Amino acid sequence: MFFSKSFIPILKNNPAEAKIKSHQLMLRTGMIKQSSAGIYSWLPLGFKVMKKIEKIVREEQDKIGAQEILMPTIQSAEIWRESGRYKDYGEEMLRIKDRQSRDMLYGPTNEELVTDIFRTSVKSYKSLPQLLYHIQWKFRDELRPRFGIMRCREFYMKDAYSFDINDDEALFSYNKFFLAYLKTFKRLNLSAIPMAADTGPIGGNLSHEFIILADTGESKIYTDKRIFDVKSDETKLQKESLKNLRGEFEKFYSVTDEKYNEKDFNDKVPEEFRLKTKGIEVGHIFYFGDKYSKPMNSSVDFQGKKEFVKMGSYGVGVSRLVGAIIEAKYDDKKEIMKWPMSVSPYDCAIIPLINKGDKKNIDKAINLTKKLKEHNVDYIIDDTEESFSAKMKKFNLIGIPFQIIIGNKTEGDNFEFINVGNDSKNLNIDEIVKIINQSKKN
Amino acid sequence: MFFSKSFIPILKNNPAEAKIKSHQLMLRTGMIKQSSAGIYSWLPLGFKVMKKIEKIVREEQDKIGAQEILMPTIQSAEIWRESGRYKDYGEEMLRIKDRQSRDMLYGPTNEELVTDIFRTSVKSYKSLPQLLYHIQWKFRDELRPRFGIMRCREFYMKDAYSFDINDDEALFSYNKFFLAYLKTFKRLNLSAIPMAADTGPIGGNLSHEFIILADTGESKIYTDKRIFDVKSDETKLQKESLKNLRGEFEKFYSVTDEKYNEKDFNDKVPEEFRLKTKGIEVGHIFYFGDKYSKPMNSSVDFQGKKEFVKMGSYGVGVSRLVGAIIEAKYDDKKEIMKWPMSVSPYDCAIIPLINKGDKKNIDKAINLTKKLKEHNVDYIIDDTEESFSAKMKKFNLIGIPFQIIIGNKTEGDNFEFINVGNDSKNLNIDEIVKIINQSKKN
Q1: Chains A and B: how many Cβ contacts under 8 Å?
Q2: Superfamily assignment of A346-441 in CATH?
Q3: Suppose A9 and one of A139, A200, A408, B121 were both cysteines; which one would form an S-S bond, judging by CB atoms 3.0 to 4.6 Å apart?
Q4: CATH code for B21-329?
Q5: Do B47 and A69 touch (CB under 8 A)?
Q6: Do B44 and A116 touch (CB under 8 A)?
Q7: Contact present, B417 and B402 (Cβ < 8 Å)
Q8: Strand, helix or coil for residue A114
Q9: Cross-strand pairs, A68
């Protein structure tokens, strides 16, 4: 891809309306464009990052045996009346009347709809457990949308739902998602900490938020620093192993604001390990038993009688993660962004120094691409006539982790190669490809 | 995947509300579930097919240099007032007031929104052409939704938009999409014919519908049979080559109802080639010049003056194609569905004959899967205790193109293998894998 042909509308300055770095950076590098308050279009650069995040989220859901479905965005108010949440949900729910004056709404979440699907589809406990997920747009009519896609109105979310015959099995399902989330965030190069959390309008009595530390976060958190050292690599997708993992985390006090109790915090956390800070919620899981299955009459046959299924729900903010990763990875002092390789819009930027009318370095850049294509290295060539320093500044914001500089000093088979944040090296293209592809495996 | 653990809620009989075969089949095989009038959830089997169609549509857009973006579903009424379509669009547009009483709507199409993105992003003709596409949910509040996902309210669509400096370049872009659509439908194993069509609420004076023949279609078509023999395999992504391709098609009279003129038809088509029949619209492309760019003031600098960009738009109904393929491929007499390999939910069904309490044949089935996994053959094993004839009937509706039957006669290394619609053969697993993977390449 040539930069001159790409649809990456770069802004020269930070837009005044953007208060946090992810919002600033996403507007400046043309990742998104606001279309109305709290509603954004995703332009190619932002879209690529979001799709890579989505793919990782999907793969980790598939690994625990969850099956993907896709529920519509527009729901009937009927099922929300059945569950009793239609009135409760308040003004954040975007309520709609269709041309026949039926009460509809844009789904802010899908507990009701998935319960309706389940109750008409599954009759016997033998088909349990069922883990269903979908990745779909949601709408919450925030009074004051802000911080770009971090607190917007239309957002892209993975939400999963589990159906089990009893509490014990349901907690097994809960723990599978607990592990899937740890693995998901790890692949995104984020250290997200599971914290005991309030259940809010979803309901139930067991809930964890997955939070990444960030000064700009809206969640206040109180945690024992040792929780950062808990490892999940050895955990197996088995009941005991998963229970142990949860146990390892729960050894350490770690809660969000609503669950915070000063005395507990001080009693349970030695002073040197106490951490009061802010974070960004990137995932939230809930166990709520029969809160929806009972009013909506969703039951299965079990030994001759009807049992209401026990349900949980599990959300990851796919679009929000794009911003969260920027908040976590952007280097404020150096003004440098570096995407984790797993979600970078391109693997590598090729930046030729171009003197007006002299295409020599562009030709050199094009020559390189054959080898890159052969080894599945995805690149963008900056063929614009901007000054070299302007280009470097631009790419340091765009955040592609590797840069190949083709300048006047480039001679023979070696190129200036930068692993962003490190000193540059002179390497030939084979060495460069090797380093890039190695970094994809990590 | 085991059938007993999958979420494929099969219905015993055709639901009374379903009038056409695609609607019947999709409900019976648990591909979709209606959630409210004209609004459906996609269950795993239907979701898999739709995702495979989406992937093919995406790849062919990428091949012509279109860049993927993602616009939101909820739009502001403002931009529709600018273009003048807010009033015109009528009751099919789902109009919404948000909590601040702002006029919003659920996008039925995206000409306005993409023009708004373009005008704030591109300033110079040097950045042209730009081809942008997205694949997103749309809503049209049909008065009488019917035929399942064929004429529903919330539907999944790929819509692309082209921006060029003049008519000549714009027609080059138009023809690129023309070719991309022919290639897309071919990969879906559909013979879709481009027909001169009315432009309706989109506007402009050049338009083609891509139509597949089907008795249950809602479009009346009048065509010269020789158009089915026009080949596009040799066409290159170059101006002349594409123009020639369009010319080859336009040699033959081929129009939809609105464009039909009896005298023309009889004059231009020799009697033996005349075909009056019905079809399903699966794609629609439009050229409308400055219809949106002018009122919305979307221009670029060209030799010192402002030129309104020349635009076209290009739609493919991704969700509708699932139904269209069924309408085209379902064999009414034999009551057999066979998905094209490129979009089948699984590559292969393994159907063991199971006597109560005897797991022998399930074990044989599981033994096979190692080889299948090694060669990326995606399978589903029917481990339910249904009768063999019930299983065969079920899988003939589900439509997976290949079946491996493991019955009491299965001995040694050979299995009964059925390429659906053909006689069964006794083959070993290596031969089976070879046939399946060969069919994926076609």
Answers
A1: 156
A2: Anticodon-binding domain (3.40.50.800)
A3: B121
A4: 3.30.930.10
A5: yes
A6: no
A7: yes
A8: helix
A9: A133
In whole angstroms, what is the distance from residue A300 CA to residue B110 CA?
44
CB contact residues (below 8 A), chain B span 67-86, against chain A: 67-76, 78
State CA A9 to chain mean position distance. Answer: 24
* A2 contacts chain B (CB < 8 A): no
CB–CB contact A35 B120 (8 Å): no
Contacts with B12 (C-beta within 8 Å, 6 or more apart), sequence order: none
* Three-class secondary structure of residue A213 per DSSP: strand
Beta strands in B74-205 (DSSP E): 74-76, 94-97, 103-106, 130-139, 154-164, 192-196
- How many angstroms separate the CA of residue B163 from the nearest CA in chain A? 12
Cβ of A149 under 8 Å from any chain B Cβ?
no
Q: Do B69 and A106 touch (CB under 8 A)?
A: no
ipTM above 0.90, yes or no: yes
- Among B69, B99, B104, select the one facing A43 at the smallest CB separation: B69
Degrees, nearest 5: CA angle A6-A11-A12: 125
- Could A98 and B94 be called an inter-chain contact, meaning their C-beta atoms sit closer than 8 Å? yes
Task: Determine the Cα–Cα distance for residues B43 and A172; give it in Å rounded to an integer.
Answer: 24
Length of chain B, in residues:
442
Tokens of B254: 């081929």
- pLDDT tens by residue, A354-379: 888 788 899 999 999 999 999 999 99
- Cα–Cα distance for residue pair A318/A322, rounded to 1 Å: 7
SS3 for B117? helix
Place of tokens 């026990």: A310
Distance CA B215, CA B332 (A): 12
Read off the pTM: 0.97
Residue B103: burial class (beta carbons within 10 Å; 0-12, 13-18, 19+): middle
Paired residues of B348 in beta bridges? B379, B402
What 3-state DSSP class applies to A428?
strand
Q: Roughly how many angstroms between the first and final C-alpha of chain A, as a whole number? A: 25
Q: Is B40 on the interface with A (CB under 8 A)?
A: yes
* Cα B407 to Cα A15, B352, B362, B420, B435, distances in angstroms: 69, 6, 10, 17, 21
**pLDDT score for B442:** 67
- CB-based contact, A66 to chain B, within 8 Å: no
pLDDT digit string (tens) for B176-221?
999 999 999 999 999 899 998 888 877 888 999 999 988 888 889 9
A4:B126 CB<8 A? yes
* B43 vs A contacts (CB less than 8 Å): 69, 117, 121
Q: How many residues does chain A have?
A: 442
Q: Where are the domains of chain A?
A: 21-329, 346-441
Nearest to A415 by CA among A369, A376, A373, A374: A369
